TrEMBL record:
This is Methyltransferase type 12. It comes from Flavihumibacter stibioxidans. One of its GO terms (biological process) is methylation. It comes from the Bacteria. Gene3D superfamilies: Vaccinia Virus protein VP39 (3.40.50.150). Keywords: Methyltransferase, Transferase.
Length: 297
C-alpha cells in the first residue's frame, strides 16, 4: 500500500518534526499509526498515512456515521438527538457571520446532506461536495440533494459563495494547500469560511491521549491546533476572525474514547470529562474539544 512519509510539516513546511505518540485505528483496521508534531506551527499529523488512492478502504465501516447516517448503538443515537439542535444553530451561525438571510453556500464534505437540507429549507442556494458514493445516494434519497464529487471543486464559479463550510473535513484532505487556495478563490468578497476541526490541545485530548477518538487515524491526516490553523490560513491570504467552541463534541468524543480506552462504555466518566473539557473552553474557545474557526480573506 503506497503511503506518504513526510520529511517536512504539511502545513508550514518546517523540518523540525518528530513523533509524539502512536494511535490505533479503532474503527476499521486496528492498525497502529504514528502521530508526529511540528515544533514550528504545532500541527500534528499522521505519519506514513495511505495516499489518496489507497485510503478508501479505511472509510468502509457501517459505523462511520457521516457516510452511513446510522443510528445503531447508544453513541450514534445520542449523535442524532443532538444533531437536530446543532443543525439549526449552524443555520443561525451562517446568517450571522455572512450578514445574509439567504445566499449561496458551498459545503465541502457534505456527508448525507442534513446540513445543506436545513439551509435549502431556509432559502439558501446550496452546493455540496461529497467523496463517498453511498453518502451521496443517501442525500438524494432522503433530501433530494444532488451532491457533486470532489473533482467538481475545480469547475465551480470563482467568487460565487457567500459562505464555504467544512465541518470536520479539512483533516481528511490530502491536497491541503491546493484545497485552501481554491477555497480562497471561490469565496465572494466579504464571504465567510467556516471550519469545524478537532483540537488536540483540548482537555479531553489530554485526558485520553492515544485513545482520544478524534485522532481517528488514518482518516484524519492532520491534527490541528488553533496556531496551526491560523498559520495555514495566513499562507493562503486568509485570517481567523473569531473562534467558537463546539460544546457537544467533548461529550461525543469522550464517549467514543471511553470505549476505545476500556473496551466498554463509560457514560459517567465520559460526561465528567466532557464537562471538564468544556469548563476550560468556557472563557477560552481555543481550548475546546472541537473549534469553529470563522475566517475570511
Amino acid at each position: 500500500m503506497p503511503v506518504i512519509h513526510y520529511q517536512h510539516c504539511p502545513v508550514c513546511g518546517g523540518a523540525n518534526i518528530k513523533p509524539v505518540l502512536s494511535a490505533r485505528d479503532f474503527t476499521v483496521s486496528q492498525q497502529v499509526f504514528s502521530i508526529w508534531e511540528c515544533a514550528d506551527c504545532t500541527l500534528r499529523f499522521t505519519q506514513d498515512v495511505p495516499d489518496q488512492d489507497s485510503i478508501g478502504p479505511f472509510y468502509q465501516s457501517e459505523t462511520y456515521i457521516s457516510h452511513s447516517d446510522t443510528k445503531k448503538g447508544m453513541v450514534n443515537t445520542a449523535y442524532h438527538l443532538v444533531r437536530s439542535y446543532t443543525l439549526k444553530e449552524k443555520v443561525k451561525l451562517i446568517r450571522r457571520v455572512t450578514g445574509k438571510r439567504s445566499g449561496r453556500i458551498l459545503d465541502i464534505g457534505a456527508g448525507t446532506g442534513a446540513f445543506l437540507d436545513q439551509l435549502n429549507k431556509a432559502g439558501w442556494k446550496v452546493t455540496g461536495l461529497e467523496p463517498d458514493a453511498g453518502a451521496r445516494s443517501v442525500a438524494t434519497e432522503k433530501y433530494g440533494l444532488q451532491l457533486k464529487e470532489p473533482a467538481a471543486l475545480s469547475s465551480l464559479e470563482a467568487g460565487a459563495y457567500d459562505a464555504i463550510t467544512l465541518w470536520h473535513v479539512l483533516e481528511h484532505v490530502h491536497d491541503l494547500h491546493q484545497y485552501m487556495e481554491r477555497i480562497r478563490e471561490l469565496l465572494a468578497p466579504g464571504g465567510a469560511l467556516i471550519l469545524g476541526l478537532p483540537n488536540y490541545q483540548s482537555a479531553d485530548a489530554y485526558i485520553y491521549a492515544e485513545n482520544w477518538a478524534a485522532y481517528d487515524v488514518p482518516r484524519h491526516l492532520y491534527h490541528f491546533s488553533p496556531a496551526s490553523v491560523k498559520k495555514l490560513l495566513s499562507l493562503h491570504g486568509m485570517s481567523v476572525k473569531s473562534l467558537l467552541p463546539m460544546w457537544f463534541d467533548s461529550f461525543y468524543i469522550s464517549l467514543l474514547s471511553e470505549q476505545y480506552k476500556n473496551g466498554k462504555p463509560g457514560y459517567i466518566a465520559a460526561v465528567l470529562n466532557g464537562l471538564r473539557s468544556n469548563k476550560k473552553a468556557f472563557s477560552a474557545p481555543e481550548n475546546a474539544s472541537s473549534v469553529i474557526y470563522i475566517a475570511g480573506k
